[in-house]
Amino acid sequence: MKNRRIVLASRPSGVPVPANFRLEEVDVPELAEGQVLIENLVFAIDPAVRGMLDDVRSYMPPVPIGGLIPTMVLGRVVASRNPDFHEGDYGRAFIGWEEFSVLTPGAVGFENVRIAPDMPLTAYMGALGWSGITAYVGLKRYGEMRAGDEVLISAAAGAVGSVAGQVARLSGCRAVGTVGGADKARIAREVLGFDDVIDYRAAPDLAEAIRAAFPNGIDLYFDNVGGETLDAVLPQMKAFGRIPVCGMISNYNHQNEPYLLRNIWQVLVNRITMRGFLAYEAADMLHEAEDALADWVRKGQLIATENVTTGLEHTPEAFIRLMSGTTTGKTLVRLREDISTLESLKVGQPA
C-alpha cells in the first residue's frame, strides 16, 4: 500500500511559501502490536506547527528537513492490532499531513473518537476537537474561570478564541475579543456573540482601547497571540488576575526576533498567575469538555466556525493562509469531497 504525504523541503523564513513543502510517496509500514492504521479524513491545521518548522527548541521537537509536517489527524480505522480500536472506528492523534497514518499508543492525542451521527466529521477537529477542548480546559482549569469574570480573548475569531469567547459567556462571564480587521470584528460580534470587540488594526492605541473596554480591569486574559497584545494587557489586569497562555502566534513567523515585553513587571505588581498550558495534559477533562461542547452546539448556543480546504495537495496553501492571518474560524483540510462539514456555519473561503 502506498501513502502520499507532505514533508519539509526547506525551512521557512517568516510566512511559509509553497517551496518549503514537498509531496512524496512512500510505503505504508506493517503494523506492530498496539498500533492502528487509519485512512485520514480531516487534518486540523494549527499555527503552533509553524514553530516546529524552525530549527529551534520548543515543547515539540523541530521537524527535520525531509520530515513529515505534523498535524492532528482524524481518520477511519482500516486495520488494527490494538484491542481498543476496530475496523470502522475513528482514530485521532498528532501525526502529519499524509493519506494514511499509523497511530501508536503514547502519541499526542491518541484516542478512539466517539462520533455522533448528527455531527459532521470536521466538527471533531474544530469546536468538538482539540481547539474546542483547548478553549474549555484553558479557561476552566488553567484560567480558573468564575461566573462574573471580566474576560479578554485574543485572536477571538480564530479556531480556539472563537470557542473560548462563547464558553466564557455561556459560563456567566463578560467576554471581549481582540481581532485583526473589520470583517473579523463583525463575525466576533454578530456571529459569535462577544460582548465587545477590539480591532487592533483600527485602534490608534491598543492599550487605551483595552482600558476603555475594561474600566475596572481584567480578571482573566486568554492569550493566543503574545507580543504587543500581551504587553498592552498586563497593566490592565486586576490584582490576582489569571493569564492562561495558549499560544503566541505573533512570534511564530519570527521566532528569532520575538517581541520584547516591556510590562512583564506587572506580573509582580498585580500578583498575576500566568501559566502556559497544553490541553492534552488535562486528559481527565477530555470527556467533560467534549460532552459540554457538543451539547452547546446541538442547542445552537455555541456557533462552530470553520474554513475548509479539500485535498492533500492543497494542505500547504491552507497552512500559508492561516499563517498569513487571512483565515477565520478553524482551518481544516478534508481529504475527500464527500467528507461532511459544518456547511451551515462555515466562515471563510473553502478551496
Key features?
15 strands, 2 domains, 10 helices, 351 residues, Quinone Oxidoreductase, Chain A, domain 1, Rossmann fold
Number of domains as seen in the coordinates: 2
SSE arrangement, N to C = EEEHEEEEHEHEHEHEHEHHEHEHE
**Helical/strand content category:** alpha/beta
- How widely separated are the two ends? 28 Å
CATH overall fold name of the largest domain: Quinone Oxidoreductase, Chain A, domain 1
**Helix coverage percent of residues?**
10-25%
CATH homologous superfamily caption of the largest domain: Medium-chain alcohol dehydrogenases, catalytic domain
Give the strand tally.
Answer: 15
Number of helices: 10
Overall body shape: globular
Measured on Cα atoms, how large is the radius of gyration?
A: 20 Å
| Low-confidence runs | 344-351
Task: Explain what you see.
The protein is built from 10 helices and 15 strands. The protein is an alpha/beta fold. It has 2 domains: 166 residues, Quinone Oxidoreductase, Chain A, domain 1, CATH 3.90.180.10; 150 residues, NAD(P)-binding Rossmann-like Domain (Rossmann fold, 3-Layer(aba) Sandwich), CATH 3.40.50.720. The strands form 3 sheets. Strands 3, 4, 5, 6, 7, 14 and 15 form a 7-stranded mixed sheet that branches. α5 crosses α6. The longest helix is centred in the middle third of the chain and has 13 residues. The C terminus is likely disordered.
